Structures are given as C-alpha cells and as structure tokens.
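Fill in residues.
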C-alpha cells in the first residue's frame, strides 16, 4: 500500500461526518485495500480521541445475510465505538446531525474478561458479563449509502450512534431469540438472533480474531455490538424506534420532530 494517503482519506471521512455531508467513494481511486482501510479507520477514530472522546467498545458489521444483501458487501467487518456515540436508552437524536441515518436492531454484550493475545478464547460466559437489546444508528458517509468493502471499513463501518437497553445476565440460549424493529408502534423488521452468524456468540469470536489481526484488543467493560439481525430502516424526523429482543427486552430511541428544540 505504498502511496495511500491514510491521513488525507481519514480527514475527508471525518469532515463528511462532522458536517453531515455525503462524499464519493474513495477506495477505488486511491487503491485502498482492506488493510489500508483499517489503517484509515484507526486514523479516523484517532481524530475523535484527539478531541477527547474515549474508546468504549467494538461493533461488528455484516454478520447477517440480511445486512450483507442490503449493502451488497459480503464480508464480516468491525469498527470502533466511542463514549460520544452512545445515546441513553430512550434518548433523542436529531436527524439533521446525520446524512441519511438508518436504524437497526442489535444485541449488545458487556465484556468482562477478554483473553490476552495468544490465550485461547475461554467460554462465552467468562468473557461476557451481561447482554442487552440495542439500537445502532448507522450513517454511511458515502453518497446513496453505497460503498465497497474497503470504503465501509475506512468509514468506521458506518458507525453513527448507539443505544443500549437494560442489561441482563447472559441467558441460557442466545441463538434463537426473536428480534423486532418497531417504528412508531409498527413492525418494520422481524428477525432472529440466529441470523447473526448462526449464534451471536460467534460474533465475539470473530471480533476477537479480526480485530486481533490489526493489533486491537477488546477490553473489560467495553460494549460489543454483535451486528444487526435484520436490514436497517431509514430514520425519519419524529420517529420513535424500539428494538425488541426476546428474553432481553427493549431499547428505544427517538428522532426529534422537525422544528422541535432538541
Ligand atoms: C455497514 C455497517 C453494518 C451491521 O450491524 O451489520 C452494521 C452498513 O450497513 O452501512 O453495523
Ligand atoms: Mg450495526
């Protein structure tokens, strides 16, 4: 990857997010490959850390067929979450802060004891303290929400904000729980946690493996989003969104109404 302007690409993506302005895809014209794209993501997230944000977790992307089909990319990806991206459960966002926000239902893990590099992955119950229903608001910085694999990786996997519902102890089975995404009381998407790599616990193995390749370690106390079980839906002003996961409960998020003070 000689000659790729990692910092320059990260700056473009960062500006696009800060000003909620779509940009064209960058990977093809700059020759960005997957490793180069993760380097751009690191630089992009570093811009946030430089202004005082803190890393609080990791998110997986495209761990379900529904998501892969929606965006036309069929590789599992991962991105970073910071404290500023977290919106309280039941909180409000302003769609004007985003380009073309979409919401999707997620399952979140609260990490407890994650293996050291080289240490065998222990049991899921050792690594995860609690689980929760969650909502992720994604917002691709690329025009028309259209991107290649390296493009979406560089763009921190479209991460926008996230909301975590109440934490519960890890239930016996996580592999076949019903998932609903409701908008204004109507069902917008229906799925099952089985759609997430067959079992969302596998998303953690993938996250450890894939992030580990780039020298990124998961930390105790971090949040881990396993990836959406269903396609994402556009978030409209005034919408009230609920993600309902069987046995785990509900996470909710509102979009401010047009003209309302937020
Ligand atoms: C990429 C991010 C995917 C998920 O849960 O699958 C993701 C995108 O869809 O823009 O967050
Ligand atoms: Mg997601």
């Amino acid at each position: 990857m000689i000659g790729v302007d990692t910092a320059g690409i990260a700056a473009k993506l960062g500006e696009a997010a800060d000003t909620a302005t779509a940009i064209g895809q960058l990977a093809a014209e700059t020759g960005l490959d997957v490793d180069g794209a993760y380097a751009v993501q690191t630089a992009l997230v570093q811009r946030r850390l430089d202004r005082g944000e803190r890393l609080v977790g990791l998110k997986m992307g495209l761990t379900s067929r529904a998501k892969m089909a929606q965006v036309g990319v069929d590789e599992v990806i991962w991105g970073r979450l910071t404290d500023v991206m977290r919106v309280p459960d039941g909180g409000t966002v302003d769609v004007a802060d985003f380009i073309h926000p979409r919401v999707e239902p997620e399952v979140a893990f609260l990490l407890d004891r994650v293996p050291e590099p080289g240490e065998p992955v222990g049991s899921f119950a050792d690594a995860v303290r609690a689980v929760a229903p969650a909502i992720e608001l994604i917002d691709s910085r690329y025009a028309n929400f259209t991107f290649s694999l390296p493009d979406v990786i560089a763009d921190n996997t479209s991460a926008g904000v996230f909301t975590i519902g109440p934490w519960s102890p890890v239930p016996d089975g996580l592999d076949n729980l019903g998932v609903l995404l409701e908008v204004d009381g109507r069902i917008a998407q229906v799925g099952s946690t089985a759609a997430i790599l067959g079992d969302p616990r596998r998303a953690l193995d993938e996250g450890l493996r894939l992030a580990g390749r780039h020298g990124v370690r998961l930390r105790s106390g971090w949040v881990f989003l396993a990836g959406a079980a269903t396609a994402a839906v556009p978030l409209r002003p005034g919408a009230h969104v609920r993600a309902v996961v069987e046995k785990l409960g509900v996470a909710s998020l509102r979009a401010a109404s047009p003209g309302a003070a937020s």
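The longest strand covers residues 128-138.
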